[in-house]
Structures are given as C-alpha cells and as structure tokens.
Amino acid sequence: MKFxxxxxxxxxxxxxxxxxxxxxTTIPILTGIKLELSQEGLTITGSDVDISIQTxxxxxxxxxxxxxxxTGAIVLPARFFNEIIKKLPGEQFTLNVxxxxxxxxxxxxxxxxxxxxxxxxxxxxxxxxxxxxLSISAEMLRQLVDETVFSASKQENRPILTGLHLKxxxxxxxxxxxxxxxxxxxxxxxxxxxxxxxxxxVPARSLKELEHCLIEDNSEIKxxxxxxxxxxxxxxxxxxxxxxxxxYPGTDRLIPTSSDTQLxxxxxxxxxxVERASLLSHASRNNVVRLAIDVNASKVTLYGxxxxxxxxxxxxxxxALSGADLEISFNPDYLxxxxxxxxxxxxxxxxxxxxxxxxxxxxxNKENFIQLxxxxxxx
Length: 379
Hints:
Forms a ring-shaped head-to-tail homodimer around DNA. Its main location: cytoplasm. It comes from Bombilactobacillus thymidiniphilus. Belongs to the beta sliding clamp family. This protein has helices at about 5-20, 80-85, 140-145, 205-215, 265-280, 330-340; strands at about 1-5, 30-35, 40-45, 50-60, 65-70, 70-75, 90-95, 100-105, 110-115, 135, 165-170, 170-180, 180-190, 190, 200-205, 220-225, 230-235, 235-240, 260-265, 290-295, 300-305, 310-315, 320-325, 325-330, 345-350, 360, 370-375. The chain is of the alpha+beta class. It folds into 3 domains: about 1-120, DNA Polymerase III, Chain A, domain 2, CATH 3.10.150.10; about 135-175 and about 190-240, DNA Polymerase III, subunit A, domain 2 (DNA Polymerase III, Chain A, domain 2); about 255-375, Proliferating Cell Nuclear Antigen. It has a 9-stranded antiparallel β-sheet. A 9-stranded antiparallel β-sheet has the order 15-11-12-13-27-26-25-19-23. The model has no long low-confidence stretch (mean pLDDT about 95).
C-alpha cells in the first residue's frame, strides 16, 4: 500500500474519525486508525464500539492531491500517527506500507517508520441496511442537540436516561432528555421517506460527538435506523452509534397543562441575573437560589445565599407578570443551562406551585420547545 496526499486536506478529513477513537478501549486494535486504499480513494475508520466513524477521501477530488501507487490496508496507532502528520514539514506526505506492516511516512527530508497492525483483525462496522431513510438539515439537527442533550443524565445508574429519546412519526421528530430533575423537549421537522414510526434512544455522548462533526449548516443528513444502531450519513462521512436498550420513561405526564403564575422574561437578561445569584449559591453546600413573586406589587426578586460568604438580592425586569404570588427555590445551574439553550429571545415561565416543576417556553414557538425544572424543597 502506497499513496501521496495533501497533508492539510488529510488532517481535515481525519479530524472527525479521531473522535471515535478512545485510549480506554478493552480492544487494543481499536486504539488504532484504519486506512484502506482502493482505486477510488482512501477510506479512514475509527471506532470505540459504541461510536464508529468512517470518512472517504476521493481520488477524483483535485484538492486532495491523492496519488495512488499500490492499494491495500493498514491499522496505525492513532495518537502517534495523528501527531506525526500534524508536525510533518511539507505540504504533502507519502505513506508506504512495507514488510511486516511496517509503515514509512515521508515528507520533505523527514522520515518516520512506525509499526502497524493487520487490517484484517479490525472489527467490521455495524450493518445498518435500510432503504427507508430520514433526512434532516445539519442546522436543525445541531439545534435539536444543543437544546436537549444537556438535560440527559450523567449518572450510569439509569443508563436509559443518559440518552436522547427520539420519536419519529410522519414528518415530525420529537426529542426528549431528562435526568429526573429537569427535562428538555424539542420538536423539529424531518423528511421521513418511510411509513414506519420510530421510538429509539441515542446516547447523549454520541450526539455531542456528531454535533462536532457537522461543519456545514446547509448540508443534508440522511439517517438510517436498525434494531440496535443508527447511522448518520453526510459529506462522505458515515457516523454509527449504538442505541440504548430499554424503555424510556413516559415524560408527557410530567409537563403541566395549566399554571397559576405566568412571567415573561428576556432570556439573556434573566440568564445574567441567575449567573450573578449563583456566584454565592455555589459557595453554599446546597447550591439553591430563591425566586419571590409578588404579583400585586409587580415585583420579582431573585435571592442567592451563602452562610460563609454573604447574600445577593436582585429585582428582575419582567416583560409581563400575572397570576398568584409565589416563592420557589431551585438549582440555578439547571436554569442557566435551560436559558442558554434559548439564546436571545423572549421566554414565558409558568409555575403551578412551590413544589411542582415549572416550565420555560419561547414566546414565539411554545408548542415545539419546552424546558422543565423541578424545584428544591427548602423546608
């Protein structure tokens, strides 16, 4: 196996594949990156079993400056190989696999020889065969991930909650994440070319890595789903992820259908206020802030407290205020992450009581996006 390629193009192409490679894997060969050269181009694969990413560098794309002498395949130690390529001096490099899987990498006056592994020992990628594909824009998928996965659980004691629950029917995709203390739900449009409905749970970690791979917002992503795998196809790249097993808990019943107190805020302004209050709450053992709503006085006050440091009190500016008076306590970090997902927009916050979850919705898109936060009992 021997080829020459533009170094910068190669680095750009393998950056996604590197995301699937872990040094903690129990399968030694998966710490390597697989290169497979055919007459059509170079296929590069990385995997940690849970996530597998494969990208293709075409010989027909002149920008790649890919010149093939001999086809073949090799697995190279990913960390060393990546560092070597980044530090080579020339604009191009040549890779040549000789006897016993030894691999010579040349660029300018520099030459490395590293030990490779037999590519036949590399595990096969999952098979996801489906003629019934879904499609969604990269921008919409990134938005869905940004607005939901932060609410997935970080704890492994309930593995199903470490994923994003996706329900697909007709041209609607509903994504829900919860760690049992908060919830994020978003509905987006997809182009569903099948008559099937889908109900799956994708690990949050997989979706975060996928989001990093999505560079062009206007690109279209094709999605195929099998019994225990999901495949995302975009820009000569295949991104595989395992699906989580088990039934996701019913979350519809958690979202209140009515409220007793309603407020409208500028999301960015409220976020800044919560960040200030949390400066002191973080110094406290319980990390709680308190919101006091006095409807008659049109007054909303946010309190933060640390017995060791001091207190903070801030009167919040509201766009609208109605309903019953209320005092409620909650984790400010949950509210900060929820507000960050809304960006710069007006939001409606609705409360039912001091001990029931409250909701946040964008004023202009209330049906398709909702965040829910469970309060903290302080008495």
